[in-house]
Amino acid sequence: MVSSNSLINGDRLWTRLMALAEIGATPAGGVNRQALSDGEIEAWRRVVGWAQAADLTVATDAAGNLFMTLPGRDPTAPPILLGSHLDSQPTGGKFDGAAGVMAAFEAVVTLAEQRLRPACDLVVVAWMNEEGSRFAPGMMGSEAFVGARSLVAIRAVPDADGVCVGDALDRLHAAFPDLPHKPLGFPVAGYLELHIEQGPLLEASEHVIGAVTGIQGKKTFQVVIEGAEGHAGTLAQNERRDALLVFARMATALNAEIGAIDDAIKFTIGRVTVEPNAPSVVPSRVTFSIDLRHPDNAVLDAAGARIAVLCRRCALPCTVTLTPLVDAPSNEFDPRLRDLIVQAARDQGQPAMAILSAAGHDARHLAKVCPAAMIFIPCRDGASHVEHEWAEPAHVTAGAAVLAQVLREIAGVRS
Amino acid sequence: MVSSNSLINGDRLWTRLMALAEIGATPAGGVNRQALSDGEIEAWRRVVGWAQAADLTVATDAAGNLFMTLPGRDPTAPPILLGSHLDSQPTGGKFDGAAGVMAAFEAVVTLAEQRLRPACDLVVVAWMNEEGSRFAPGMMGSEAFVGARSLVAIRAVPDADGVCVGDALDRLHAAFPDLPHKPLGFPVAGYLELHIEQGPLLEASEHVIGAVTGIQGKKTFQVVIEGAEGHAGTLAQNERRDALLVFARMATALNAEIGAIDDAIKFTIGRVTVEPNAPSVVPSRVTFSIDLRHPDNAVLDAAGARIAVLCRRCALPCTVTLTPLVDAPSNEFDPRLRDLIVQAARDQGQPAMAILSAAGHDARHLAKVCPAAMIFIPCRDGASHVEHEWAEPAHVTAGAAVLAQVLREIAGVRS
Fold it and tell me: Which of B234, B263, B311 to mutate to test the interface with A (most CBs of A within 10 A)?
């Protein structure tokens, strides 16, 4: 195992990661620090403080991304970005996102402390709203950055309380009035992201470093079932247009048919809203989310089409509306960067395992505009998006060291 | 049809009912005035103002019931109560509850204006939280009044935002600091309640007055399904303990088996809460309500037992907890009061129809401590607990006149 070395200070990285986890900490040991919340603003404040203490230049952009820059020798050369996100699921853990931001931060700060200068700017980034739990769908910051989604559309998305991304963004920017704004989507030379695997494969095969080959494809949908309200005590069963009953049948059918396609399919209904949601009222409307993933784009497309058929088939006596939200095919990361990760891992005494990311990440979007790659480290029992999510300190250190070595190789570092 | 007559002023009653409907009015023409909300406090303020203008004595009690008294000749005789409730469903209508309070109010005020004096006090009552949509289960005010449920237990019930009945009650009382408090559960000589039918039978048979024979039995339950959270993109389908999937199967099975017992069964899942309710997280917990009604107590008991079996049978791979909340068998109203209603209806030119109440009402609880009865009037298409709920002005007037006549007969009215 790697402990601290010349590439990063593992103890400092761990201490900062734990300090960050105090912000939005939940009683069960997790983190609730949803996008653009008070908690995320407080997390920004802490990270910005560390960046300013390390003489990094701090900036944001119109999409609420956070940039912390170590200047390179050539200020006109496109920078290398590295990072992840600081927002969490409502009952998330300490590592998802935060580990990637702080590992990137540690790699850059250690380089600066050694008075090394890269050829181009090195920019540690925390993308806005990766998780998509408060404002769906997620990855808004990286999507806006690469131009995959317009900022106007993103700003209009409301949360469950009716607060729009736009207002929440303005509130974030108002909390940091002194930060300069970079233009949205400046040119980038490359992107690196470290993340916990969020699955069991590294742990099961006793690997500490995953060289991520790509990200499995994902489609998400919003489904609305419209029925009719009625009195629970008087409206006869056969005269009801009960949206909840239709939902129950539809969800059962979708799980049975889509969930059973093969072992690699991931089908999830994670969010359900019932209206008016009163015990003695027959529900008139159910709105729910579908999250569908598969590494094979052909299977993913077929499953997506099948979802539409099943929703229509189960709709009676209600009506159903299916709205596609995310449609992200599987992608492959940059082969040269993947080779550098494999080599750096070997140099650190950790053979890397080639691994497909089952979860989505901001790197998916950055890969559209520059060479991009990801480094995975294990998480205990493969558990993520849960409060007991855990990564070993030695694994965080090892992953950060691999990240730092690849960074040094692509950044033309010189003293 | 009855218009205004010597028993009540139908125009004034309608005008006040519409004025009350402005409080908590929804854009679609309904009312959202849930128990102990700002809206209900404002409704109290308006009704208390009318009562004080009519020289009624206004009081409350520890359970947040509202009492407006016309003094009788013998202040030591137990009073006659008449009324209903002022709270509504979140997407309720203008008549459910409010019609009964305002008809009672009109009957008593007309009597007072004619300088008639009853033998005992006449008390117009608005019971706290009949609906049970914000704080479940409902009928808290009447249950506390008759001692069916302890005020301590009622005060501890939280709403979805974690606000307890106790705090909401204290807030109501603080808004009316000058109102005296009656002891909880004082002796009562009789109880009358007018209500819209909330079903289609009167309308279908072209009756304007229903002489309610009793209330169909009702059981309610809270069910909690506990599974395990997980990442939607990484956790394999066959390793999931998805509480939402189990809910969907359970709800489908319950509807198919319980909902199909016979035409008279009413089975409703009206409220569902999913946790953590994020699109990319496999749900760990689903909490839902069951509302079960049937006029035959033996069928009701058998269906209740069957629900427990089905919940257990569908639980795997999660665990399930079923908590009974309400267990109210069918009841019969006082035969003498029912006869008086039939006779008063005939006198008003409206033959009464004997009808079983499919919905629950506070009168169910008052019937445990005194002779009690209910008068129904039609509502359009039988629709209630919906924003387009509607009763004809002439039907409201007719029902109030029948209520007033029965009141005069049992109250020993004299000039």
Answer: B234
Q: Which two tokens stand for residue A339?
A: 């080779």
For A99-133, give the DSSP string: HHHHHHHHHHHHHHHTT-B-SS-EEEEEES-SS-S
* Parallel, antiparallel or unpaired: strands B66-70 and B122-127: antiparallel
**Considering only CB atoms, which chain B residues are within 8 Å of A132?**
278-280
Contact A232 B270 (CB under 8 A): yes
For residue range A355-393, what is the model confidence (pLDDT) as tens digits?
999 888 999 999 999 999 999 999 999 999 899 999 999
In angstroms, what is the C-alpha Rg of chain B? 22
Q: What's the predicted TM-score (pTM) here?
A: 0.74
The C-alpha atoms of residue A265 and residue A258 are separated, in whole angstroms, by 8
Q: How many other CB atoms are there within 10 angstroms of residue B15's CB atom?
A: 13
In this complex, the residue of A251, A272, A291 whose CB is nearest that of residue B232 is: A291
Segments of chain B with pLDDT less than 70? 1-5
| Chain A, chain B: beta-carbon pairs less than 8 Å apart | 242
Dist. CA A30–CA A133, nearest whole Å: 15
Nearest Cα to Cα of residue B102 among B68, B130, B153: B68
pLDDT-above-70 percentage for chain A: 99
Contact B291 A216 (CB under 8 A): no
Domains of chain B: 10-216+330-410 (3.40.630.10), 220-328 (3.30.70.360)
Of B375, B371, B377, the closest CA to residue B343 belongs to B375
- Letter string b/e over residues B125-164, b meaning 16 or more CB atoms within 10 A of that residue's CB: bbbbbbbbbbbbbbbbbbbbbbeebebeebbebebeeeee
ipTM of this complex: 0.74
